[in-house]
Amino acid sequence: MTGESTKAGWLNRVSEYADLVKFEHTIFALPFALSAMLLASPPHQWPSLVTLLWIVLAMVGGRTYAMGLNRLIDAQIDGQNPRTQMRSIPAGRVSHREAWMLILLSAGLLIVATCQLPLICIQLLPVAFLVLTIYSYMKLFSPLAHLVLGVALGSSAVGGWLAVTGELSWLPVIFGWAVVFWVAGFDIIYACQDYGFDRSAGLKSIPVALGLPQALMVSRVFHGLTIGLLVLFALLYPSTSIFFWVAVGLTGGMLVYEHWLIRGDGREPICLEKVNEAFFNINGKISLGVFLLVLLQKVLVA
């Protein structure tokens, strides 16, 4: 029984740590990083399994570092917000010491994994840490926090490309900025849930700065830029096939559906009850759908 209790205890701690950093949200960034990895590979060639392994580990390390730090810095704020007061740290299920240990271990994983990738990835590592760190503080002084989060996830797509080629060019930058505006757009929608609390607490966000109707318009503009940049990438990429164009169409259709789903009823500008579905389900399907179609392009065309 003691062994079973110990095992159950460890499983419970792992579950709490995964919940702390919302590990399942890795689905937003990792598929785009892997898509960029496949797009960067020369025709009829595949990235090595070793490269794939280090990309995945760098992604997991970087995202866990950023999310753990964000939860730690926001612990007091989260404890005051009715929507977030049951998160792991304010609810007391994860201590500050445990959170710091997870943050430092994740930073170490990011460093070790990145050091196995091409030199340019190592050279850009300080920039990655800066972006991943500053996001947690942005809401205290600027509504541009949504774009900083977008840059953090968009950089992972660029990183997936650089891990294969070792060279920076306009193609990964265009692809990365498509991810930036996609993330910033849906993060604005997510932030609408905390509009009242953020205003009263003096926190910064585009909904607080502009109001809900205008914030939703900015979100639509950002998602329009996402589609425009994906189209530009498809036109410039030398091996674009029907599969990638389907990925662009899928992304556009799902983003239109996302904004339709959260539409207001005339009295309210947004249906807050649908935000979580729009945030996780639809955006998760976009990232996975794009990856699967890029994979099909690699298997059947390139």
Can you tell me about this structure?
The protein is mostly helical and 302 residues long. The protein has a single domain (28-300), classed as Tetracycline Repressor, domain 2, CATH 1.10.357. It is 76% helix and 0% strand. It is built from 14 helices and no strands. α2 runs parallel beside α8 (145-165), α8 (145-165) packs antiparallel against α9 and α12 (212-236) packs antiparallel against α13. The protein starts with a helix and ends with a helix.
Question: Top keywords for this entry?
Answer:
302 residues, single chain, Tetracycline Repressor, domain 2, 76% helix, mainly alpha
Terminus-to-terminus distance = 55 Å
Task: Name the CATH architecture.
Answer: Orthogonal Bundle
Largest beta-sheet details:
none
Q: Say which CATH homologous superfamily is assigned.
A: UbiA prenyltransferase
Strand content: under 5%
Structural class: mainly alpha
Average pLDDT value? 91
Q: Helix-strand pattern, N to C?
A: HHHHHHHHHHHHHH
CATH class: Mainly Alpha
List segments where confidence is low: pLDDT < 50 over at least 5 consecutive residues.
none
Total strands: 0
Helical percentage = over 70%
Q: How large, in whole angstroms, is the Cα Rg?
A: 20 Å
Question: Which term fits the overall shape?
Answer: globular
Q: How many domains make up the 3D coordinates?
A: 1
Number of helices, counting only DSSP H or I runs of 4 residues or more:
14
CATH topology: Tetracycline Repressor, domain 2
